[in-house]
Fold these 4 entries.
Entry 1:
Amino acid sequence: MKSASALSPNKRLDEFVAKFEPTNAKLIHECRAEIRKLLPTAVELVYDNYNFFVIGYSTTERASDCILSIAAAANGVGLSFYYGASLPDPHHLLLGNGKQNRFIRLPSVETLRSSGVLALINAAVAQAESPLPLQGGGHIVIKSISAKQRPRHPTSKAAAAHASPSSKRSPARE
């Protein structure tokens, strides 16, 4: 059996996603496939951190060139826009109130396919400081793996909070 470091970046990414409950794992895979279709030349920057599993879509291998990312935790999946505060949002889809980042919750891949979200993605790509390459294929870079992580499956307390309509927690802000 290969050690984790000997596995390909794609296999390692699959191992990270496998930590999630099947519903969230499937959604992560579906959202990743959808974003790869939209941004085929983007570099995927992967972080398996304490709070979140994140796949950033960047014009280079530098995190500061990230355009958007999939952020997943036990309580769900979100789409985070690195410079979302400056995006036009006529439909008021973006959540958050920080100086820079904004996000959208993704209860299904259909949300990602909606015209409003696609317009936000296109606007984010257009405002990127470094443009995406015009040709070639993107690749995966495993940027960090935290030894200690929050559970990727909801606990009974987290599941109750996620089911509650008054819950304000989100994958991109926890």
Entry 2:
Amino acid sequence: MKLKGTKLYSVLTFTCPRCHEGKFFKQGNSYRKGFAEARPSCTHCGEDFRREPGYYFGAAYVSYALTVALWVAVYVALWVFDALGWISFRFFENGWLFLIVGSIVLLALMPPLYRLSRIIWINLFVDYREDAVEFNRALRLEEEKAPPSELAESA
């Protein structure tokens, strides 16, 4: 199965959604200082990752969905461990166990979830192109040739 060229490839490898070559984040490790800093643009094709102000606020919706999925996974894991006889877990009797385990797992996975939500969010709006370098070069040339906006003239 060819994965490159799909949004899943970009999400799993944290690469540019346009060319799938350049890295999206400056830091490769989710648990090191600066883990949240995204590059301003792709080092390979030049895709601008700095959309308009507030663009990545939408990633909070993705983060919420990932967090809900994580809590469901914790519940299912505890239920399976109970079924296997490894622990005793009843949701209404051992709710504290669910909260403690879920909180620990959530705290441990917060940095990767943050990064994952941002890369998923940008992948919703940017499509892969094999000719990404030429495409972005042509976009920049069009922007340079475009007349100044009305806002700039009125200032």
Entry 3:
Amino acid sequence: MTNQGTNDPRIQAFWQGYLSSLPADANAPLIPPQAWHFMDEPEATDELGAQMQAQIQSAADELGALVVAGMKTATASLEWVYAAEGEPLPKPGDLSIILNWAGDPLCLIRTTEVRRIPFNLVDAQFAYDEGEDDRSLENWRRVHWHFFSRECAAIGREPAQDMPVVCERFEVLYRPPNPPIQAGIELMIQKIEAELEQALKLYEQAEDLENALKAYWALEERLLALELNPGEAQFQAQQRVLAAVLMRQANILRQFGRREKAAEVSICELEAARLSGDDLTLARSLVSYGATLIFSGDVEPGLEYLEEARQAFSRGDSYDHRQGLGWYWILRADLANAHVTSGGAPEALEAARQALVLLEPLENWPGVGRAYAARAIAYEALGDMRSTESARQAQTVAEERMRS
């Protein structure tokens, strides 16, 4: 944490805004309290390098935004640092103005509780209340051990499992209209999107669907906690990532046979996709919702949504547009092979051909494998065993390339 002088005109203006928000008979100090941002200013920026500097700045902005959003209601610091710097420990009732890295005031907080706890005894509830990343105790220990180790090195101490941690809880007393937290919110959304991809690879692709679903629920909770409104700078980005999270949930729920819940989630997904203002997000959600309707027995409405998705994918020629359109054709092939649509094996073969035309140049091997699998099923239904075997071999090659 780095303090900033309260004579800064931005802080003075912020404090006057706070005083103006109070009742006329309120007893409030005229002088602003301490003002600080999360993360320490590096003493030797040139040694840290540009990347480390950017990481520190990003972390400071993100943590400040978490406080404003109400997701972060606690913070931890190393007691040894207070002693080394001759600073008093925080105490209940202390006021602080939280800043972003640039020194802009974000909110006013009041300390409500201070406890001195050995590092290895900090509990899961406190880690959750710190609001960072996935809010787990495991993550808290990993991140804070790294941070406290750097602080120990700076003051000539060795980090230890029982090193004393000052665990502080606080409440937000005042937020100015439109606080400058967009950089922090943007970073949070980007981080959640990256964690979505990690959960997909770590859990869902490993067929650990229970943990995948739990991870997607947690990401949804973090996105909704941002409480963004239409028209705000990051609202559409939030809705775009939310739609992707809900799509993963719906896919797993369908696999679990929970069709009613999957349909409920898909409706929310489609709403988020429309609010995102992003054609690709909308197209993907139309596919997801159409598939949910079809597998629930509402075939005709489902096919209408799929056709709307096809049109949306066809409006662009980017990698993602072509990939999405390729997977659309895979779904149509699967539906034909399952006799959900009336075209049967010939329709499935044509749909699979369309998918391969799009996906093979992209080297999208999961899609290529699925398309050849659909061709094999269609050829087998037609009694063409030579073509069936050829399609199976091509499927195997695609799956091997996917694993390599």
Entry 4:
Amino acid sequence: MNCFRAVLLRVLASACVVSCGSSQDTTETTATTAAPEPLLPISTSSTVLDLTDVKTNPSGYEWFDFRPNVMKLILSGAAETEHVAILWYTVTDGAVGLHYHSKTESVYAIEGTQTDAKGVYPTQTVYFNPPGSGHQISNSTGFFILAYASPPDFASTDLIGEYEPVRIDTGAADLTLAYPFTAAQPGVGVYTVPLDGMGGLSAELLELSGSQGYDYEGNYLLVLKGSCDIQGTTLAEGMLVVAKTVVPEPYEIAASSGASCLAMGVSF
């Protein structure tokens, strides 16, 4: 019996050596590089809006009364905190009383004009008011994308100081020549809007001419011209992608096949 057990143990040991060697060899010869993770659909973490539909079919959206004859549609965040929203002046002489901005405010004119003491901002104009600014809106009409790093303060107007807004006409034919776009990678030019670093908001203009994706992290992306692929979805001019929360989201953006793309990204 002892002799039988010794023989059996020798057989099992030999089998283990052969088996272990085979397994190791197989692992070494079949090892492959992991495939890249697929892009998450935009709808997973963001809302996609057709701004043409917003301005032609406003009754299909959930607005609330912000001020008399001024409606607001919250896209992310809340009215009392940082948020992204669309403002709608429902009359031709819409107005908002004097208010203070403790942090940076971004306003993009979808369609219409907004007027304050610093000037008139027509369709396709974006402007940024720095922290410590404030203004009173008058003679305004149309639809505007707002991004507030802090909500407007109607009680602290005594804190308003001297300031100059940063203003860009995004519809200008020479936009990419008028501003110093820098090459971030082949086929991608980026203009970082010069904003106050303490204002809680940043913005970039993106010019893309190739299919290679560019990684952008922010709270919204707006297609200004051409056709852009965002998270693998093709979006035309006037399409807006907004993160569902105020936490910036990562996006991969590229020019659609055979097209160029100009987009604006804004981030808290």
